[in-house]
Design brief:
mainly alpha; about 110 residues
Length: about 110
């Protein structure tokens, strides 16, 4: 599992304008993020972490556990969406720089 701290670090979205990146991310997130079991498991883990944090440390524990669980969900959702992002970008945007790099690398 790769760790991407921002959407701009996702390789499938490299070379797109900020508007195109936002469009691709929003479309794929809304359509595909919750169709994978990994997303649901990470949300379940988020709930468990918040419940445990609340039980033992109160509201501070809930906030800390929610941050950790939210991070896990974000990483999971990003890795689940990468194939869908690749399909969306290849079908909706043409990038001439990637085709040039492919030829120059050979």
């Amino acid at each position: 599992m790769q760790f991407y701290w921002t959407i701009n670090q996702i390789p499938e979205l490299a070379g797109l304008t900020p508007e195109q990146t936002k469009e691709a991310w929003q479309f794929c997130y809304k359509k595909y993020a919750f169709k994978h079991w990994e997303s649901w498991v990470s949300l379940f883990v988020l709930g468990i972490l918040v419940a445990v944090g609340t039980r033992y440390l109160g509201i501070i524990g809930a906030a800390i556990a929610g941050g950790i669980g939210g991070g896990i969900f974000g990483l999971t959702a990003t890795n689940v969406l990468r194939p869908h992002l690749q399909d969306y970008v290849s079908n909706h945007f043409t990038t001439t720089s990637s085709s040039t790099e492919d030829f120059s690398g050979n």
